[in-house]
Amino acid sequence: MAKSVYVLNGPNLNLLGTREPETYGRATLKEVERRCRDCATLHKLSLEFRQSNHEGDLIDWIHEAGDKKAVGIVLNAGGYTHTSVSIRDAVAAVSIPVVEVHISNIFARDSFRHHSHIAPVAKASLCGFGIEGYALAIDGLAALIAAQHKA
Ligand code: CA2
After folding, report:
1. Residue 43 catalytic?
2. Ligand 1 pocket check for 43: Cβ under 6 Å
3. Is residue 133 scored above 80 in pLDDT?
4. Stated pTM of the model
5. Which of 65, 76, 124, 125 is the least crowded, having the fewest Cβ atoms under 10 Å away?
């Protein structure tokens, strides 16, 4: 069975492509999913791509990815990045790598976006690459697995 990667999206990301194109670009979440699917396929990984506006769903899915021993999680927790100790605890509790992704450069925006609860417990963080950041994060996870197999 193919190894899987989870791509989890938090609140309001279902609105991608419908407003604020100057900040988030014009791609819809469906297009982000397609880009992730193509990238995962290149790396021979299967993809679980999900979005929720509810904190508990994201936490349950982080646990699920850990229980299923996915190769890793790409997590754009949206606004919960800056507020949620519970999502941070879930990330810290799983033993698989989590790559934090943000479409925008959170450090070039409002000061309340400069702090991430997730960054200290993530394997890596990427921001400011637009939706390409998701594919870069999947590439990064694939590189980690390849390095583990060589070691
Ligand atoms: O840049 C990112 O990916 C963010 O995680 C997006 C979050 C924001 O709260 C973070 O600070 C940075 C917001 C997602 C909202 O997405 C929308 C997309 C289109 C229109 C309105 C909101």
Report:
1. no
2. no
3. yes
4. 0.98
5. 124
